[in-house]
Structures are given as C-alpha cells and as structure tokens.
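Hi, can you check this record?
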Amino acid sequence: MKTLFSLTLKNLADKKIRFVLTSLSVILGVMFTVGVFIFTDSLRQVFGTLADDIASGVDLTVRSEQAFGNRLLAPTIDPELARVIEQVDGVKATSPGIIENNVVIVKTDGSPVESGGNNNAPKFGVNWDDNPEFSDLYLTMGRQPSARNEFAVNTNAFEDNELQIDRSYSIVLPSTGPEAFTLVGTFNFADPDEDKSIGAVLTAFDTPTAEMVLRPDGGWNEISVLIEDDADEEIVSQLISQEIANAGYSNIEVVSSEEIAEEQEEVFDEIINIFQTFLLAFAGVILLVSIFVIFNTFTIVLGQRIREIGLMRALGATGRQIFSSTVGEAVAVGLFSSGVGIAAGLGLAYLLRFVSDQANFDLGLDALVLSSRTIVLAFIVGTGVTLVSAVVPALRSRRVSPMAALRDDLTIDARIVKQHTIIGSVLVGLGLFFTVFAFTADWQPMILYALIATFCLAIGGKRLNQRLNLGHWFVLAQGAAFLIASVVAGFESGEQAVALGLGALILIIGVNLISPVFVPNLMRGVGTPIRWMSKVTGKLSTENAARAPRRTSTTAAALMIGLALVSTVSLVASSLKATFADVLENTVKSDWFLCIGSCNDPNSTFSPNLADNIRDQPEFSSVLNFRFAEEGFIYKGEVGDVDRAGDGSGDNIKSVLGTNFSELENHIDVGLVDGFFSQANTQDGLAIYDEAAEDNNLVVGDSVLLEFNDGTQAPFRVVALYDDSRILGNWTIDIAAWDAYLPQSQDTFVSVVNAPGVTEQQAEVAISTAAVNYPQVNVQTKQEFNDSQTGQIDQIVIIVNIFLFLALVVAFIGIANTLALSIIERTRELGLLRAVGMKRRQMLLMVLWEGVLIAIFGGLLGISMGIVFGVTAVTVIPDEFISTLDIPWQTLIYYLVGAGVAGLISALLPARRASRLNVLDAIATE
C-alpha cells in the first residue's frame, strides 16, 4: 500500500499542469463559498455588535404590542404612561423614544442628503434625550439641539454631504412637508468613538421638537426604563405591566434589553441570510460544473493509464488498492484545492469589502471573520466535490484485469449491468411510487423522495435494458415530469419552486446521460460550416469530436449548465420587461409617476402633501395616491363565520395596497369583473383580485373581518373584483380606510393624469413647481419610468451573469483540460498525421475547431434547456409579476457565438502544444 501511495504522489508530481487545471475548477467553487461565508459572518458580527450597542444602557422598554408588521409602523403609546411607570418601585428613570422614517435633509443645492451616494438609504428622524444615561447619540462637533428650529446629524452623513454647522437647511418632514432648521451639531450613533449608522442618515431633534414634527399625533414609539441597581429586573417588569393595566391601558408590553437585541439581530440576520443564500446559489452552480470537469478528467486520465493499471494488477495489486490509489489522487486534489480556495476566498472577501467601500456602502467591516466552521466547511466541500467526481472512474478502474497489460486497445467503460427484468421492474415501480409520494409532500421531503425516485428509475431502467439506455431515458422523463408538475400540479409557492428546481437539475442530468447518442450526428451537422471553410482540418476536427461521444458530452455538460442558467435568467428578465412595458402601454393611463429612488421599496415614502400640491394645479385632471404594506392585516374570514372568526394565525396575514377608489379607474384599467370603485363606500370598502376571492369563496357584497397590527378588528364589504393584479395585488382598500386603521400615512407612489389640452411641457413645469420642495422624489414621464425600471432589471441581469461567469470559466477550463489530455492520448496519431504531410498550421486549426465544436455543442444544449427552464419559470411565476412571455432570440444567439469564441480561446494552448509535437517522438509514443 505504501508503494501505491508513493505512485499516487508521483503521478501527481509528473502531471503538474493537469493537477493545477483539475484543481482550479474546485478552487473557484471553494473560493466563492468561503468568500461568501467570511463576508456574511463579518456582517453578522458588525450588526450583532450594533444590536447590543443599541440595547445597551436600557434595562426595559415599554411599547405597544404588535402581532405582525414592521415595528416602525407599530401604534404609538401615550406619553402619560411615563408618569405611571416612574411611580413603580425599582424604576430609576424613564426616557421617551421617538423615531420616524423618511426625514429628508435638503442640501443648499436642492439635492437630498444621502448616505454614500445612495438615495434609497434609510433616513430616520429621532429625538435626542437630555439624560446621557439613555442616549445612544454621542456628540462629536457643535452641540446637541435644544430649540424648535435646531437639529443635529450623524457624523457619516455630515462628512459624506459636506454639510456645515450653523447653516440653515430645509428638512422634508413625513407629515407636514418642508421646514427650515439650523444644523447645530454632529454625533456618532451607538458608539462614542465610531458612527455605526451603517448607511443610514439620522436627523436628531430635541424631544419637544421631535414630538411636534415627527409625531403630530402626540404619541411616542416607546419608553425606555432604567431600574435601580439593587432592583430585580423581572419583578420590576411585572410591576410595570400591572400598573399599566391598572391605569386602563391595553395592548402594551414590557420587554428586556436582551429581547430587544435579539429582535434586532433577527432582522439583520434575515437580510444577511437572503444575501448569503443568493451568493451560495452561485457557488453551488460552480461546484456542480466542477463535478463534470473533474469526472471527465479522471475518466480520461485513467483511460490513458489502463496499461499501467494492468501491470500493477499483474504485479499483485488488488482492485481495492487500485481504487484506493485513484481516490488518494482525488483526496490530494481536494485538499490542495480546499487550502488554496480558503486563501482565495479570504481574498474575495477583502475584494467585496473594497468594492462596498468604493461604492460608498458603509458596512463597518473593519475586520473580516474567518471562523473554524468556514475552514472545516471549505475542506468538506472541496474534498467532497472531488471525491464525488472521481468515485465512478475509480470504481471502473478497479475492474481492470491483469490482461490489460498485454493489450493496447482496452478502454475503461461503464459496467455492463446484467439484465434482470424482475429487479428492474421492482426498482422502476419504487421510482414511480416515490415520484408520486414526492408530488404530495412538503418541499423538504419532496427533495429526498425525488432523488430516491430518480436513483431507482435510473438503476431499474438499466436492469431492464442497458443497451437501449432505458435508465437514462427514465431520468430524462423524471426531470420533465417535475417541470410539468411545477406548472399544473397546483403546488403551494414553496413546493412549486422546489419542483421547478428539481425538474431542472434532474433534466440536466438526464440530458447529459442521453446526449452521447446524438453527439456523432449533431457534431457532423454543427461542423458543416467548418468543413466548408477548411475541408481537411474541418473534417478531422468533426470526427475527433464525434468519436468519443461520452467524453464530448461530459465536457460540454459543464458549459451546458452555465449557459442554461444564463439563458434562463435572460429569458425571465426579458419577459419581465415585456410585461412591464405591456402594463404601461395597455393598462396604465397616467402621464406622470412620482416615487423615491428605484420605486421598489415600500418603506421609502413621502408626505401626502405632495399629492395635494399637485391636485391644486389646474394642469392636472386626476392624482392617485398609492400606499403599500407587506403585512397589512389578518384576514379572519367572513363576518359571522364561526369557524374562521378568531383565526389569528400568521397564515392569513395579507399584503395590502391603499389607493383612492374614486380616482382609480382614471389611471388604471384593472379589468373590473364585478362591483364598482367610483361609488364604493371608502371607509369599509374592499376590492379583491378575482382569483384570491375565489380561493376564499368571496363575492361582491360579502362582509369580511380584518384585524390590523394594533389588534383592531373591523368589518369590510367586498365592493369590487378585478382580474388584473399586476399593479393592485390581491387586496386593496381606500386611502380613507388606510388612514383609519394603518398608522403609516405617507405615500409610496403617486400617479398623475394631465388635464385635457395641456402639453407635456406645460405639465412638466407645473409638476416640477409642485414638487420643488421634495427633492428626494423622482418625477418621471411614462417613458422615463419604463426606462428606469427596465434599466434596473438589466442591472440585476448583469450582476447575476457576472457571478455565473465564474461557472462558465470553470466550463472552459474543462474544455482546455479535456483537449490537453486528448492530445496526450492521441500523441502517436497526431505524429502519424504530421508524418503523412499535415502542416503545423493544419494541426493547430484541427484542435482549435475541435474546441469550437465542443463549445457550440454545449451551447446548443444549454441554450435549449435555458429556453425550457425559462418558459417554465415564466409560466410558474404569478401573472402579477410576469404575464408576457418574451424569448430574447438575439441575445441567445450572442451567447452561442460567445461560447464558440470562448471554446476557440480555451483550445489555444492545447492546439499550440499539438502543433509543436516532434514527429519522430510522437510516432514512437506507446
């Protein structure tokens, strides 16, 4: 065994280039995985520390209870509660907490103060408490605000926007609009030595001013409580709760600083987890592509060493020892790749931090966190991927007999499984059983059942008939079945997404298993233009690519996966843009649109005074306000429905849009099915998407019970059903009802219709005049709005494709690796071709064309599958997001041409090596 181990190391040392190329594909996957974990773990540390800093210095917090929804939108509490709390034994002091979103400072040039150049950055207004024991604002320059017309700003925002102390600035307040204030000081948030606002703009007023300008309703967001040093926190908390109840207050809770910190961390973790999952998905794609590359490499290498393996068997090596030697090579590649991948991942994390700093995203990442968990995971991923890739070639190598030492024509092929109808039928039956079981399961067991079913179908089909590739065809059919089921089976959204993903993954495997059948004919078809351009080299390259179908197919599979995903993303994005354009063209009648930033953040709101200002202009005939809440209310069923009333679970929390029913049809054609908007009772009217109404057995005239986040329950009457939910969503109420039951009274979006006879230039002047005091709001025409939204989609596609580009790099490394190994395998053949008259240039072209053919073959498969996946995804995605299918044929053709060019580049080094072979040495090669 020691001798075999030494031989394993010698094989690796002798083939340094092959070793590096094989490792590189795994290194990229490990690098991306490690980089993502380092970056997100560092973010968690920063935000976790921030959460602790925010909660520090306060023992208890008194606030309104909230069953669901954004805490910033929770109902306020009565300031008189502070007096009640201060009378409780053990309470040392109390402090008011006031915070409001979308408080915008306007610079002297008329532009809004931003954080790091980001207009979408959160902009909060807060109160500055006089008691230093409570305040998490630490003065750095000037003084703290103490009068009605004064404010202070956080240090980062002050420096980023070059503000000046003692200068007057307009501040756009959420409720009342713009007002002049004098900047008197700056502060650090949460830390006396460093501003930990992390991308936010904080505007601080003294408490009386904050009450007037941020909370004109007279309420506070919370009350902070300090207890005596010798008091028991739990006992004091219970006493406070009892006194609050005795004073007649309800729906008030008392929470500890630990609970506040945990809540903050959960919010931060939720955002970071989404970011982490998004990036790890790309790492998974890279590793999946790497599996095909490494599998192909080991298969070719073992095929080239078959005589060597036969000699080892003749000298006494067992099949297990041969297997162990091959696995040892894989482990060495995996360990090396993991180690280098960890270092590269750390470099990637530093690069991500640098990019975020250059983009002015202040994330506070002073140090990066490389945890032991990340290191262990890196070695598990790197070594595991390599072992999984090499295990099948290793199992095949152990079947090589000592007779292989005496033959030159033996190859390592897949094992011919003996046909057994009964066993095959049983396995196929189990596969069908688990498939049906998967279709009826939740998403977690669905994955397990689907994989078991696919394995049983593949092995069972092989037992029934291997020569007809029945197992391969069964896998292909299984993938197609899951794709179809994702569309027609009526799954919930989670199961539907998993079924779509499983279908895509299994179909990719199935296509890879089946594709060798089509390689010869497809290669000859694709190679026709090449043969026209270069008869001899074109024909030879076509035949070379076609004579090893399994190798060509596996090499192209890596590229197929990358291009399938790129094509899917492009098709979905193109359909999304087509849907948006269709909505604007055929559904929306508005001429102007007003929103903040990219118009896709429901928390970026502005004062309804802006819409009122526009209504006062004679150039406009109609103005429509829009407001949105992700968690607006709990649907509790029809009034009087005993079975549904009282169902306060989170399962029925609905997102809701608020708008002006009386103006709606002047702006949007929502496809009214039944009922009416214009004459609806605005205080209790509810409009519903017809499919949502059908799901809940509701018709116009029904009364339903809704519960809002402050616990208030109110009956609403269904006044309208509509069949186009792309703008309104599923549930819509009037602005009047919104003002009565939802505390967020600012607008998210406003649309405007010009008056008859008013030109666009006249309207532009009028709307610009009305919005002059709201610089944070974008004013756009219909075309400008369409361009801005489609531009955002294009930016997302570019970002996704940049990440997928790494997978394509791995795929092209695989092509280069395969061609390089193929040249070693065909050294004698290439030498004979040179001996009979082939020139160096012809040899170079032959290998180059072979790389192009493999890349185009993988490109055709990938783009075809991308179209299938994209069409399925568009069908699965609800119509309110995508309702128009658009296949970007021109873009897909560019992808195919790009794949061919990249294949050409990948083949350059192997082709150059082939063209420089010494003829006599090549002929003498065995």
